[in-house]
Amino acid sequence: MQPHNPISSAQAQAQLADHIRNPALPAPPGIAPERLAVYTRLVRNNIKSFLDLCFSDSSLLADSEQWQGWQNRFLIEAHPESPFFNDIPPQFLAYLNSLPQHERPSENMLAVMDFETALLHAETAIQPDSDGRWHEHSVLSWAPAARLQYYPCDFVSIGPEQIEDSPCHVLTWRNRSNEVYYRTIEGTDLFLLQHFQRQSDTFTNLLAGLQELLPEQDVAELLKPAVNDWVDAGVLLTTKSTDGTIQT
């Protein structure tokens, strides 16, 4: 008789995770089938429900069978492992983007899904407190919860039920009262936010560079109110020292 070699706890957990992702795979020994079926259904339904909640608009751009098929393939093929549900939607979107073009959602649908993950990020990202105070020598930094993204279509002006084939930049952020907002960005605001998204800077330093390029224009009068608005909105943050004073 061959000796019995029990699997380790880690192996059993890995086998259980694989079975939950794909119930066609062998189940770990020692678990009653009815209990395993309930647990598997619970975990899979929780993940799918969270994806449905996060992608409440974009999922309507596909038929129900397609949407469920992508969810099942994601669980089986992508092997999501994060214990945090907030990590699942970006992983799902990354998986869909990795599929061959004829198997993945339309570019418009992927754009709306990216926007919805940005909203989730804005809601959950950890960022420092800011009271909105600043001066021209304050170091202004991009808020961790904010994202400014280019999209090849416009689903914000009217809504995802009527997507326009015109490119746009969309900003998502959480203000200092922990409220999530979004809007399209263009013109001076687009230039300003793209600058601070790339790097932290002071208003004085930014202004000096622009005045060299535009010596005959009153750039300060144009930019200062915009900077003030975005600091007040919580998109740009000031760095504070341990005693609460604003760093310069």
UniProtKB/TrEMBL annotation:
Superkingdom in the source lineage: Bacteria
Query: Can you give the residue ranges of the Putative DNA-binding domain?
Result: 11-96
Enumerate the Gene3D superfamilies for this protein: 3.90.930.50, DUF2063
Q: Which Pfam families match?
A: DUF2063, NGO1945_C
Domain called NGO1945-like C-terminal: residue spans: 143-224
Entry-linked InterPro entries: DUF2063, DUF2063_N_sf, NGO1945-like_C
Name-wise, this protein is: Uncharacterized protein
Q: Cite the source lineage.
A: Bacteria, Pseudomonadati, Pseudomonadota, Betaproteobacteria, Neisseriales
